[in-house]
UniProtKB/TrEMBL annotation:
This is Tryptophan synthase beta chain. InterPro entries: Trp_synth_b_CS (IPR006653), Trp_synth_beta (IPR006654), Trp_synth_beta/beta-like (IPR023026), TrpB-like_PALP (IPR001926), TrpB-like_PALP_sf (IPR036052). Its cofactor is pyridoxal 5'-phosphate. Belongs to the TrpB family. Residues 71-392 form the Tryptophan synthase beta chain-like PALP domain. GO terms for cellular component: cytoplasm.
Length: 422
């Protein structure tokens, strides 16, 4: 169902009209709620809490205080001069990497933990791919005195070992998922299965703008602060809006968080999917670029699937983008042509990772490096300025990046200095 909607940001931003409704959880034909009967009551309870507390000034004041005092908001917008010169157009970064825990995930984790508290749920269950959402969940569980159970694919645990250690140090139980591709898709399935079994006393702290209604809207509303801050900051810095926005898209939470405040503005917007080894190889995670409409994890959207409707495994060097589906709001924005979705390859992302690190002293998450990579491609034909959402920092990726670079013949030790310990 399509209808007019007008919503207020939980961060207190301006009122924004949208040409689609959220009352029934649909974005055009996408979204909805496709879940087992066991979860219907829990989702209805969450929907009621979402609509009640996001209009409650006491709730919103507490959320804003936590963003300010605990997460460290507002994060800055940073002009990157050397990268701009190398790429050929002015490039700015929205620095979500400077949040407490190192990524944008803390924004919705804090909001959802507050909802869980209001609902009387003392256990959080979550899935994680790159580990950033898992760390954010473990962090808020520690902050609120809650139990955290986090499902993570065994392959992702190998790639993101530092974040596994952080989650365990924070007191969370990290459950390895050994089924399927042992990545994010399988972690989501196991987290939902756990939630079905413990729904009475457990809150499912979903990590992206995916899943059954109301999660896509709820997560988006807790991430809107990114775009609302960025829009005001960019205007103050330059006196105008950026001409282009870029953000990486896996499930799509950081991207919709940035895009939402700009949807009514004359700004070109690009979501960047993981093109993996190349779309033609089938080894990618580009659901909007090469997927078909189907149902995955409780919502209708674009997913990677075969001709029989079986979900296909996704591939990306970035564990956070390694997911065969995408949030339904992105599917709708693609359909109405408001946002363009492109794919960049593993090699392009790795190259951009090194560009930003060596030219600006900023180590991006591999997820964010996909957005930087598209800015590099786009800047050759687009005058800019381009605003890139740097959704997370790359500390967690260093071990994996070294493996990837060594496999490509890149050495970091100057052979002429080997043995010099002085």
């Amino acid at each position: 169902m399509v209808q007019s909607a007008s919503t207020e940001s939980p961060e207190g931003g301006k009122k924004i009209a949208r040409p689609y409704g959220e009352g029934d959880g649909h974005f055009g034909p996408y979204g909805g709620r496709y879940v087992p009967e066991t979860l219907v009551r829990a989702l209805e309870e969450l929907e009621e809490a979402y609509h009640t507390y996001l209009k409650d000034e006491n709730f919103l004041a507490e959320y804003r205080r936590l963003l300010r005092e605990y997460a460290g908001r507002p994060t800055p917008v940073t002009f990157v001069p050397r990268l701009s010169e190398a790429y050929g157009a002015p490039v700015y970064l929205k620095r979500e990497d400077l949040n407490h825990t190192g990524a944008h995930k803390i924004n919705h984790a804090l909001g959802q933990a507050l909802l869980a508290e209001r609902l009387g749920k003392r256990r959080l269950v979550a899935e994680t791919g790159a580990g950033q959402h898992g760390v954010a969940t473990a962090t808020v569980a520690a902050r609120f005195g809650m139990e955290a159970v986090i499902f993570m694919g065994e392959e992702d645990m190998r790639r993101q070992a530092p974040n596994v250690a952080r989650m365990r140090l924070l007191g969370a139980k990290v459950v390895p998922v050994t089924t399927g591709t042992r990545t994010l898709q399988d972690a989501v399935s196991e987290a939902i299965r756990y939630w079905v079994e413990h729904v009475e006393d457990t809150y499912y702290l979903l990590g992206s703008a995916v899943g059954p209604h109301p999660y896509p809207s709820l997560v988006r509303d807790f991430q809107r602060v990114i775009g609302e801050e960025a829009r005001a900051q960019f205007l103050e810095m330059t006196g105008e809006l950026p001409r282009g926005l870029v953000a990486s898209v896996g499930g799509g939470s950081n991207a919709i968080g940035l895009f939402y405040a700009f949807l009514d503005d004359p700004v070109e917007i690009v979501g960047v999917e993981a093109g993996g080894l190349g779309i033609s190889t089938g080894k990618h995670a580009a659901s909007l670029t090469a997927g078909e409409v189907g149902v995955l994890h409780g919502a209708k959207s674009y997913i990677l699937q075969d001709e029989l409707g079986n979900v296909l495994p996704a591939h990306s060097i970035s564990a956070g983008l390694d997911y065969p589906g995408v949030g339904p709001e992105h599917a709708y924005l693609k359909e109405i042509g408001r946002v363009r979705y492109e794919a960049v390859t593993d090699d392009e992302a790795l190259e951009a990772f090194l560009d930003l690190t060596r030219l600006e002293g900023i180590i991006p998450a591999l997820e964010s490096a996909h957005a930087v990579a598209y800015a590099k491609r786009w800047a050759k034909e687009f005058p800019g300025p381009i605003l890139v959402n740097l959704s997370g920092r790359g500390d967690k990726d260093l071990g994996h990046v070294f493996e990837l670079l060594e496999a490509r013949g890149v050495k970091f030790v100057d052979e002429g200095t080997q043995g010099d310990r002085g």
